[in-house]
Amino acid sequence: MVYKNISKEQTIKIIASILCKFDPVGLCVRGNQNDNYISEAKLLAIILEEKVNFIHFWKNIHDVLLKQLQIDVKKQVCRKISCEIVAKLSTRSFAEELRKNPALKNMDDDLCLTIHDYFIVRFDSSGKVFINGEYFCLCEEQDIESLLTDFVVDNEVIYVLFSQKYSLFKKSHIRVYDRDNANIDGLTKNNKVLMIFDNKTLIYKRENLILKVALLINKNNKTIEVYGKKPQGELGDILYSFLGLEKESLINKYFFEDSSGNKCSIDVYNPQACEHSRNYIIIGIADKIVWRYKTNSNHEFEKTFYLEKNDVRIVESEFNS
User: Residues with Cβ < 8 Å from 237, sequence gap 6 or more?
Assistant: First the structure.
């Protein structure tokens, strides 16, 4: 089966990137830049052109890797690779379909639509729609294009983000008002209002509100941002594979590994406004965030991020274990 809106070349590139991400036989770790699973990806793309049922696609992955590289990859690993390939191709196909609508030309490959800097929409496979990291509504897949188009072209409404204390018992902290009937002056004086915006611009923002989310983990791009900053700082551009999550009382612990095998963890204290989807992990608000990075030579870095009024304070430490 050929995925709608995706060329064979794009399909091969996506499959190869996911094989590199899992690197089941160690090609990428060994630095073999001349292969990087392209040959295997081409064979798997041919199989996908012919397959209708993907339940047993993991077997094809296993057989191709065994035949091409003489390595018997575990069934569990092949299943994970299969699920990610199918999910990524489905997401890319849907994104390409949505981008045919001129209003949705800014939709990215991970189904994130940036209308402007203060109006960013994401949705996940369960139909949950998020605006600026805040849950907004549930939407059926067949209605997504219509909803997103309304976000972009509807000039008759404004969006108001309330504090969580105001909307503690509401599913969404964002309310939509008819522009002609909204008392914008009154809303700006309401201390429960954090932000007001429409499809064109930011109308109002509380003075001490930092709009960047506390933590943004992009699983596909393997990137981490804490209040819009790369936590590794001067260590350069590092890609992190997400390993897992542990929850303790009022603390979320996230674990990662980079391509060199170095370990990293992030502790989020009192996380709020959380979104965990296939492609993203977003924490809107936190008391503090502690980032720890340990190299294979047992050199450790640690940064603690505190949100204080209009700024983020960072406390750094470095030591050998």
Answer: 230
Describe the strand order of the beta sheet including 193-197 as a list of residue ranges.
174-178, 157-162, 193-197, 202-205
User: For the segment 6-33, what is each residue's pLDDT rounded down to a tens digit?
Assistant: 888 999 989 998 898 788 887 775 544 4
CB 68 within 8 A of CB 40: yes
Least confident of 38-47, 152-161, 232-241, 279-288: 232-241
**Residue 216, φ and ψ in degrees, nearest 5:** -130, 115
| Tokens found for residue 285 | 């608000």
pLDDT above 70: residue 212: no
Q: Per-residue pLDDT tens for 217-230? A: 888 778 888 987 88
Residue 17: which residues within 8 A CB-CB, separation 6 or more? none
For the residues of 18-32, what is the DSSP string, one character each? HHHHH-TTSTTTTT-
Return the sign of the alpha-carbon dihedral for residues 303, 235, 280, 254.
negative
Q: Sheet with 134-138: list strands edge to edge.
A: 112-116, 119-123, 128-131, 134-138
pLDDT at res. 34: 45
Can you give the pLDDT at residue 279? 76
The one-letter amino acid at 296: N
Identity of the amino acid at 317:
S
Three-class SS of residue 83? helix
User: Residues 113, 120: contact at Cβ < 8 Å?
Assistant: yes
What pLDDT was estimated at residue 211? Answer: 58
Between CA 182 and CA 251 the distance in angstroms is 39
Per-residue buried b or exposed e for 143-155, using 16+ beta carbons within 10 Å of the residue's own CB:
ebbeebeebbeee
8 A C-beta contact, residue 212 and residue 133:
no
Beta carbons within 10 angstroms of residue 159's beta carbon: 20
Exposure string of 264-283, with b = 16+ CB inside 10 Å and e = fewer, is bbbbbbebebbbebbbbbbb
pLDDT tens-place string over residues 82-106 = 988 988 888 889 999 999 999 999 8
